[in-house]
Design a protein that fits this description.
By secondary structure, the protein is an alpha+beta fold. Helices cover 36% and strands 9% of the residues. It is built from three helices and two strands; from the N terminus they run ααββα. The longest helix has 15 residues, at 5-19. The N and C termini lie far apart (64 Å).
Length: 108
C-alpha cells in the first residue's frame, strides 16, 4: 500500500477545518473602482447643447425636427473603438431616438 505524506496532511487539515480547530484567515478582496461615465460630466452636457443647436434640433438621418429627450447625440465613430473622439464635435451628430436605435442595432 502506498502512503502519501501530502495526502495525509491534506486529510488532517480537512478534518481540523471541519472540527473548527483551524480557522482560515479572512482575506478582503480589493474593491473595484467604479469607472466614471464621461457622458455624465458637465463638459458633455454643455457639448450636447452645442451640437443640438448646431444641427438645429434636426435628426441627421431622417430629418425629423424634435426637441428634448427624443434627441440623441450619436458618435459617428463609436467611442468604444475611438475613445479619443468622445468629445470631438466633428464625430458627433444629432439623431432622433428611432434612428439612433436603428444605427446601434445595425452597426458593424
Amino acid at each position: 500500500m502506498y502512503f502519501s505524506l501530502e495526502n495525509s496532511i491534506d486529510n488532517i487539515l480537512k478534518r481540523e477545518r471541519e472540527a473548527g480547530i483551524i480557522v482560515e484567515p479572512a482575506i478582503d478582496k480589493p474593491k473595484k473602482k467604479k469607472k466614471k461615465n464621461p457622458l455624465l460630466c458637465q463638459e458633455w452636457k454643455d457639448l450636447r447643447k452645442v451640437i443640438i443647436n448646431r444641427d438645429g434640433n434636426k435628426c441627421k438621418h431622417c430629418g425629423k425636427i424634435t426637441k428634448g429627450s427624443d434627441l440623441n447625440i450619436d458618435h459617428i465613430k463609436p467611442k468604444s473603438l475611438f475613445p479619443e473622439l468622445t468629445f470631438d464635435p466633428g464625430n458627433l451628430q444629432v439623431l432622433c431616438r428611432k434612428c439612433n436605435f436603428k444605427k446601434n442595432t445595425n452597426y458593424e
